[in-house]
Amino acid sequence: ADVAHLVERHLAKVEVASSSLVIRSIADLESAFFITQRGVIMTYKYKTKGVCASHIEIELDEDVIKEVKFIGGCSGNTQGVAALVKGMKAEDAVERLEGIKCGFKSTSCPDQLAKALKEAIS
User: Fold this and answer.
1) Do 63 and 89 form a contact (C-beta atoms < 8 A)?
2) Main-chain phi, psi angles of 87, to 5 degrees
3) Inter-residue contact 116 to 56 (CB < 8 Å)
C-alpha cells in the first residue's frame, strides 16, 4: 500500500509514536495506520449492515490479514471465519467470501468482512 495514497484517502493526521509513524483518520477515527520498518500495519473498524455482528475489527500488514474480530454475531461461526482468513491476502479472502448469504438475508458476516476488506484495501 502506498503511504501517500493512504494519507490522502483518509485525510489523516500524522504523529510520531515511539519507533512508528502513526497516521489516524480525522474523518471518522475508524482506522489507524502504523508505519514500521516492516511496512504499513493498518487497523480498521467496519460498521456492518444487515447482520447480527455490530462491527468488524481488522488488522492488515500491507495486504495480509493479521487479525479479524467480529463484535457480536454467532460466536462460533465468526471465530471460524476469522481463523480461516488469518494469513490470507485480503483480495483472496474477498474473492472467497463476497456474496455469501445468511438464510434469507441479502448478506452475511463473511460477506460483510469482504466489504470491509475491499474498503480497507481500496
Assistant:
1) yes
2) 90, -10
3) yes
Half-sphere exposure (CA, 13 Å, Cβ side) for 11? 4
For residue range 57-114, list pLDDT tens digits in order. Answer: 999 988 899 999 999 999 999 999 999 999 999 999 999 999 999 999 999 999 999 9
Residue 13 DSSP SS3: strand
Torsion over CA: 54, 81, 59, 44 (sign): negative
Report the length, in residues, of the chain: 122
Q: Which residue do the cell numbers 471460524 mark?
A: 80
State the pLDDT at residue 26. 42
Q: Which amino acid makes up residue 78? A: T
| Burial group, residue 29, by CB count within 10 angstroms (0-12, 13-18, 19+) | exposed
Among the listed residues 78, 82, 79, the one whose alpha carbon sits nearest the alpha carbon of residue 59:
82
Cβ 105 vs Cβ 99: under 8 Å: no
